[in-house]
């Protein structure tokens, strides 16, 4: 008896399609099981059937393909599913990818198309045999935010969040810019008893100190020029809810002292007021700074750190959880194809391999923008060449090759790269001095995004003097 190429469950309410697919697959030595409804497919999987792949029709009576997909993924998170659709319904295909579908085929399809999808989905079947979790976990938090976990590190964070959500303590999230610290905070709020209450995020680096203070704590008439009426701050608006203080490492020390009192006493006074406002707010905080260094240089109060540090979650960089990249590529493809009204593009093995090899200095945000560009350009070769160019620009300087001159003569490319870096560092430094370290204004002067400026400040180790 010949060795099976894999076990495939075909789910379709049309008997003719079931027979057609079963014939095509069995010719290529696949073991085929069929189901005429989503209910039947779920029953098979729940009672022990372990297919390597499911071919699932999108349009079925009683339980449609999307509902079946969602329940299949709950019953067996690592199950690989390919959707079959007689029409290219962009929204439904995108939703299927967001729910974890590996790929899709539009009926009628030829054998070459089927073979390509099967090769893509089953090429690593032997390597991942016995691992039921390789497809990962996707959890919707809001219209545009999802918690995605396929690595041991992110699964551990999910377990920590479940434990922390029910305990009303501050949580400090540390990690590089773009790793998903805000998403972790949203997940804590969603799973907490405060989930039905207000959620607010305040970016502590986006406003000068005086504006940030009025934004957080509110003010009374006459507190400053232009304050003609009282205004509640974010803490009041967030009473009984959860507030995320993003980039808290950029908060001025004077405000850190006032925040410390809120953490200790759950009360504060508005600007221009002598009375106290009592609130019940859960405080979450996030930063990408080096906390020990910031404490040593007195940019961050040590007592505030210990108040916030009831529990710390370190969110790893994307390069430290590369096994999530295939899932994230499909996830972002589903999200943005639906948003832009486009048919999702194929995520080929070559694309996955290139993305896995890349370091992603911008983390999830950079990967997200990469998928947007791919979806808009629609040219895999072009987007891969862009990735290769980015990879070269971020590569560490290489040792001279064997036989290359070692007399200290500078390489022209290295010289140009170094001069460019020095010029960029100088331009950023001048803009920061000109704006008195108002990063938002400096980013506007430099005509770059605020996040790009923060990344470059960290990259060039620029310090406020």
Structure characterization notes:
This protein has 465 residues and is α/β, with parallel strands linked by helices. It has a 5-stranded parallel beta sheet, sandwiched between helices. Residues 125-134 and 396-408 have low confidence and may be disordered. Helix 2 packs parallel to helix 3 (65-75). The chain is built from 19 helices and 14 strands. The protein has 4 domains: 1-135, Rossmann fold (3-Layer(aba) Sandwich), CATH 3.40.50; 152-314, P-loop containing nucleotide triphosphate hydrolases (Rossmann fold), CATH 3.40.50; 319-395, Orthogonal Bundle (Helicase, Ruva Protein, domain 3); 412-459, Arc Repressor Mutant, subunit A (Orthogonal Bundle).
Task: Please describe the biggest sheet, giving its number of strands, its sense, and whether it closes into a barrel.
Answer: 5 strands, parallel
Gross geometry: elongated
Estimated share of beta-strand residues: 5-15%
Helix content: 40-55%
Total number of domains? 4
Alpha-carbon distance between the two ends: 76 Å
């Amino acid at each position: 008896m010949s060795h099976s190429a894999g076990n495939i469950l075909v789910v379709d309410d049309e008997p003719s399609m079931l027979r057609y697919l079963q014939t095509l697959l069995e010719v290529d030595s696949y073991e085929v099981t069929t189901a005429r409804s989503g209910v039947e497919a779920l029953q098979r999987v729940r009672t022990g059937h372990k297919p390597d792949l499911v071919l699932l029709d999108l349009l079925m009576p009683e339980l449609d393909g999307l509902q079946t997909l969602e329940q299949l993924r709950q019953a067996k998170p690592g199950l690989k599913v390919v959707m079959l659709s007689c029409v290219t319904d962009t929204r439904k295909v995108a939703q299927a990818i967001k729910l974890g579908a590996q790929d899709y085929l539009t009926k009628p399809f030829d054998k070459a198309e089927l073979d390509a999808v099967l090769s893509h989905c089953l090429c690593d079947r032997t390597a991942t045999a016995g691992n039921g979790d390789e497809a990962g976990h996707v959890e919707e938090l809001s219209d545009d935010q999802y918690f995605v976990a396929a690595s041991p590190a992110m699964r551990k964070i999910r377990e920590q969040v479940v434990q922390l959500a029910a305990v009303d303590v501050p949580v400090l999230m540390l990690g590089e810019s773009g790793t998903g610290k805000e998403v972790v905070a949203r997940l804590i709020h969603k799973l907490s008893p405060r989930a039905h209450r207000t959620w607010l995020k305040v970016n502590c680096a986006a406003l000068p100190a005086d504006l940030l203070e009025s934004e957080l704590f509110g003010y009374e008439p006459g507190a400053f020029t232009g304050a003609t009426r009282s205004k509640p701050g974010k803490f009041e608006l967030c009473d009984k809810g959860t507030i995320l203080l993003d980039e808290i490492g950029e908060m001025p020390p004077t405000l850190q002292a006032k925040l410390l009192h809120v953490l200790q006493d759950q009360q504060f006074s508005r600007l221009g007021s002598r009375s106290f406002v009592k609130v019940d707010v859960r405080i979450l905080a996030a930063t990408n700074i080096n906390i020990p260094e910031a404490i040593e240089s007195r940019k961050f109060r040590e007592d505030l750190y210990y108040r916030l540090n009831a529990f710390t979650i370190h969110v790893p960089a994307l390069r430290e959880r590369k096994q999530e990249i295939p899932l994230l590529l499909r996830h972002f493809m589903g999200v943005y194809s639906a948003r832009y009204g486009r048919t999702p593009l194929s995520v080929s093995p070559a694309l996955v391999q290139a993305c896995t090899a890349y370091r992603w200095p911008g983390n999830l945000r950079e990967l997200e923008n990469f998928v947007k560009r791919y979806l808009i350009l629609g040219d895999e070769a072009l987007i891969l060449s862009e990735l290769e160019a980015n990879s070269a620009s971020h590569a560490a300087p290489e040792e001279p090759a064997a036989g290359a001159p070692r007399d200290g003569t500078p390489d022209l490319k290295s010289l140009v790269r170094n001069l460019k870096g020095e010029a960029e560092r100088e331009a950023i430094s001048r803009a920061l001095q000109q704006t008195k370290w108002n990063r938002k204004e400096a980013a506007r002067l430099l005509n770059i995004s605020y996040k790009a400026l923060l990344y470059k400040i960290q990259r060039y180790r620029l310090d406020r003097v």
